[in-house]
Design brief:
With 112 residues, the protein is mainly alpha-helical. It has helices at 15-18, 37-41, 49-55, 72-80, 85-111, and strands at residues 23-24, 45-46. The protein is elongated and about 80 Å long.
Length: 112
Amino acid sequence: MVGPNDRARTLSARYYKDGSEILIDRGWDFNKPITDPENLLNRPRRLTPLECARLMGFNTPTGNEFKIPVSDTQAYKQFGNSVVAPLFAAIAKQMKPYIMKARALEESKKVA
């Protein structure tokens, strides 16, 4: 279970099955019986597709530009099979100068 200040585990494509990899803690008390009415109100919940989109970098907490035109099941599968978009963009930005340098070197070899 994760709380507001925790890091979430990796989202996987199988999250749609039971969502057990990442559960949001809402105050579940393990010392109370499972049938306790107050405890039932605080039972852990799974992420919503919108939260998965945010976790994977498709939306920000202040904007929901990314549209999810598929069922929740398909959305969980697609986000679980994705890469974290901002991370991939940051890595590509770091790699670009080296790629451009290698291309320029190859081009200079062809000319010579």
